[in-house]
Amino acid sequence: MRLTFILLFFALNAVSADFYWVNGTGNWSDPSHWATTSGGTVFNTSPPDSIDNVYFDSNSFLSANDTVYLDTYFSLCGDFSISNLTFPATFMADPIAIALETHGSFSIDSTANWKFSLPLWLAGFSNHTLTCNTGSTSFISPILIQSPGGQYSLGNNVHCKFFTINDGSFISNSFDVICDSMFTVQSLSYISFGTSLISSEFGMDIFPASTPVTANLSADSCKFKSHYFSTGPDIQNLFLFNVEAYDVTAYLAYFDTLNAHSFSGSRNIVHVLSSLDSVLIINNDIIYYPDSTNDFQTILTGNELIMNGKNHADYIEFTQPVSNFQLGDTLFIHGALIVNSYPGNNGSMSSFSFQSVLSVDTGLVCLDYLLITNIAAIGGAQFFAGYNSLDNGGNTNWQFSACNGSNVWPGDANYDLQVNNLDILTIASAFGSSGPVRPSASLLWVGQPCIDWTDTLVTGLNVKHADCDGSGNIDFSDTLAVYQNYGMNHPARSIQQPMQVMSGGSLSVTIANDTIGLNQAIRINIDLGEVSDPVSAIYGIAFDVHFNSSLAEVDTTSFDYSNSWMGEYGTDMIAMAKSDGAGTIHFALSSITHSDLSGFGNIVSFDLISTGANLNSSTLQIQPSQVVAMQTNEIYESVISTGDSAVIDSSFITIIPEHQHIEMEIYPNPAQNYVLVNFKNASKHLISITDIAGRIVFSSEFEKTNNRIDVSQFENGYYLIRVDNEPAKQLLVFRQ
């Protein structure tokens, strides 16, 4: 929606005044409701103007039935504030009203009953703030920023019906904007979305005008999510990080230099562009702009991708069997092209013009079951069209034969181009599979050529990628590559398709004690599902746990799976816990039985050690994030999660119960050549170490407080170390 009128107000030598609403129900135009002070009896002589600040506060209303009627064409003010109302008064429009026009900051809290459904026009000429705290309800006024020379910044997350930036500058301050209908950017001086989520239930238009526009739009790692997403033609300086929509049409131009991680000059950069349904269209008019190019780090589409003009991409993936892949002038791919197809699909890959160029830097391009027309393949890659594809003419440098091999990157078991805890779930899905040994296999982070195995996962991924150590068997030892190469990526980072929320069960963190003294163990219990809300079907789960590392440090020997309802660690369950040393622990655990589980209760527990000797009292928060569950169908689902907190108090003396566990330290972990097991009190203890397959590799009795165990002959991998009948601790032996 474009605004077709602009009202300018000039106030020479005018002085702004404060207007406080009093006496309950009334009309905006009535001066008898506008006091000069909060709850005052001295009144302004006229309604507020565009330079006057208006306030609704605890002294404004007499009952919950009070109503403010905005009864002028344009209800004008400078700053507008609603806060701490004693009664939840209603704000609504009189039939004559057109808009609420604010020339300053706008702030509303959840104590108001906002029923004013006409536009909120933000028209300030300097720097102002927009704060809409409407609780669980949506702010129903369409929000329109029309402030030439001005700037509006968000003061909190905004949930509204419509949000339009028509002129001026906008800073999100990394707060989210959630629109029930439309989000539109018409024109602006500068806009910054930071790390915000910009979501629109219906659609999102970015610069839909047909005239050239300089975007100056920066979205550091912002995510745009909508049913449809479109941009107008002739845009320059457009930088988008993550775009998700069912229908995407992007008219992008003016990109001169390939640089996927900066924002300067005349260029358009999109890090992640996702079509959740089927079609993704990118139009780049090189007839009028022959040097223009777009740069995409990651493109995820359904079954159709149309890329007109010249485009660069690090990674392109069809998440559905391809029906139409159409190229314009040139498509440069600097990483991987993943195309899904199957017998009977009969998709096509063709050119807009006489012949298009597909340039892939390295590796293998593997296609099949496609009709290929007028595609010239160049670059350092090998291009296999597949035995079942048809050469429809105009193609060069293609082999119409099968592609039987690709690189395995040790640790990237699900081949999403990065190593994280989700790879443990893929190893669990493929557990027990076997195939050819990978030649010259190692855990080094390099692409290692490997022929395809016979087996594939439900997703179509060849299971050879889960054989991380190249032994020819997918077993517990493959988790070591995930641990060693955690966080690595190649050659670009892909993202998973948006996930549905798991129905039934949530993940919760519980701290055993509300108050903890210094240098004390803090027991953390992670539960999945509860009696009233059990998990109905799950195979594995991956998640992160965050805490303030200045208040606590992790005891890496304390990860305890002995009470996990998901299985017995090392027998029918695989698990990993990796601390980054800076307040985050990456977890993954999964059954390896190839059957979904149901249940509720504890899945893992661990200890933190309270620190911060100079602190009198501080609150330690433990918060989970990135919680992803998987069933045997290998479809990821997000999981609702809750955290917990406790107070660390230096004056608090922890009372140790009589039934406490044996007090001991086990370090270093990971270990290279030895591990120390130190007890607080000297007494006889049996220490045993088993490998991940359950074989006892060490067992001996010790009576000293400080004990050293030689592990220099142990192979790299995970082990369980147990003292007497205490729960076994996870021990990693790892040498480069």
Gyration radius (Cα, Å) is 31 Å
Cα end-to-end separation: 61 Å
Q: Structural class of the helices, strands and pairings? A: mainly beta
Low-pLDDT stretches: 1-13, 251-272, 274-281, 283-291, 492-497
Q: Give the number of DSSP strands.
A: 59
Q: What do the pLDDT scores average to?
A: 81
Helix content: under 10%
In DSSP terms (H or I, runs of 4 or more residues), the helix count works out at: 2
Description:
- There is one protein chain.
- The chain is mainly β and 736 residues long.
- Among the domains are: 1-192; 405-495, Type 1 dockerin domain (Orthogonal Bundle), CATH 1.10.1330.10; 500-649, Sandwich (Immunoglobulin-like), CATH 2.60.40; 664-733, Sandwich (Immunoglobulin-like), CATH 2.60.40.3080.
- It is built from 2 helices and 59 strands.
- The strands form 9 sheets. Strands 38, 40, 43, 45, 46, 49, 50 and 52 form an 8-stranded mixed sheet that branches.
- Strand 49 and strand 50 (636-638) form a beta hairpin.
- The protein is flat and about 90 Å long.
- Mean pLDDT is 81; it is low at 1-13, 251-272, 274-281, 283-291 and 492-497.
What are the main properties of this structure?
2% helix, 59 strands, Immunoglobulin-like, 736 residues, 8-stranded mixed β-sheet, 2 helices, 7-stranded parallel beta barrel, Type 1 dockerin domain
Secondary structure elements and pairings:
Layout: E1 18-21, E2 26-27, E3 34-35, E4 53-56, E5 67-70, E6 74-77, E7 80-82, E8 90-93, E9 99-102, E10 106-108, E11 113-114, E12 120-122, E13 127-132, E14 143-154, E15 158-171, E16 177-185, E17 190-192, E18 197-206, E19 213-218, E20 223-231, E21 235-251, E22 268-275, E23 279-283, E24 294-301, E25 304-307, E26 310-318, E27 324-327, E28 330-338, E29 347-351, E30 356-360, E31 364-366, E32 370-372, E33 375-378, E34 382-384, E35 390-391, E36 406-408, H1 422-429, E37 448-450, H2 479-484, E38 500-501, E39 507-511, E40 515-516, E41 521-528, E42 535-538, E43 540-546, E44 552-554, E45 573-579, E46 584-591, E47 597-599, E48 601-610, E49 617-630, E50 636-638, E51 641-642, E52 644-649, E53 664-667, E54 674-679, E55 685-691, E56 696-702, E57 706-710, E58 717-723, E59 729-733
Parallel strand pairs: 1-4, 2-5, 4-7, 5-8, 6-9, 7-10, 8-11, 9-12, 10-13, 12-14, 13-14, 14-15, 15-16, 15-17, 16-18, 17-19, 18-20, 19-21, 20-21, 21-22, 21-23, 22-24, 23-25, 24-26, 25-27, 26-28, 27-29, 28-30, 29-32, 30-33, 31-34, 32-35, 38-50, 39-51, 40-52
Antiparallel strand pairs: 1-3, 36-37, 39-41, 41-48, 42-47, 43-46, 43-49, 44-48, 45-46, 49-50, 49-52, 53-54, 54-57, 55-56, 55-58, 58-59
